[in-house]
Amino acid sequence: MSSWYKLGLGNDDQAFEPTLRIQQMFMSKFLMCPPGSGRALFSCYDKEKDELWLYFSPAAEDIALRVYAEPCEPPTALDCIGLLAGEGDALGREMDEPALWAKAA
């Protein structure tokens, strides 16, 4: 299975335009995919560091690589994740993998 990807975009002011462009790139591909593709784009805002992070599901690797996102561990519910575009259940699919259950234990 492919990796999740993470991209730091800075504070709210710095992150607005790049997030909008990435979301548009994502949607142009997503709308051509069949349901259940697993493509998803999530965001996470770290209040303490004033930093916005984008997370790309493994199925969105093509977009992640185009914007120089780096491989990372799948985000967790504790990361204050919000769905920006795509299929929200892509996050839940990670815990369907038996190897990940063993890793989480």
If you had to describe this structure to a student in words, what would you say it looks like?
The protein is of the alpha+beta class. It contains four helices and five strands, in the order βαββαββαα. The protein has helices spanning 12-30, 61-66, 90-93, 98-104, and strands at residues 4-8, 40-46, 51-56, 70-72, 81-86. A five-stranded antiparallel beta sheet has the order 4-1-3-2-5. Strand 2 (40-46) and strand 3 (51-56) form a beta hairpin. It is globular and about 35 Å long. The two termini are 20 Å apart. The model is unreliable at 95-105 (pLDDT under 50).
Any key phrases for this structure?
105 residues; alpha+beta; 5-stranded antiparallel sheet; 4 helices; disordered C terminus
Topology:
Blueprint: E1 4-8, H1 12-30, E2 40-46, E3 51-56, H2 61-66, E4 70-72, E5 81-86, H3 90-93, H4 98-104
Antiparallel strand pairs: 1-3, 1-4, 2-3, 2-5
Q: What summary fits the major beta sheet? A: 5 strands, antiparallel
- Major sheet strand order: 4-1-3-2-5
Low-pLDDT segments:
95-105
Task: Give the helix proportion (percent range).
Answer: 25-40%
Shape: globular
Instruction: Calculate Rg over CA atoms.
Output: 13 Å
Question: Between the first and last Cα atoms, what is the distance in angstroms?
Answer: 20 Å
Let me know the average pLDDT.
81
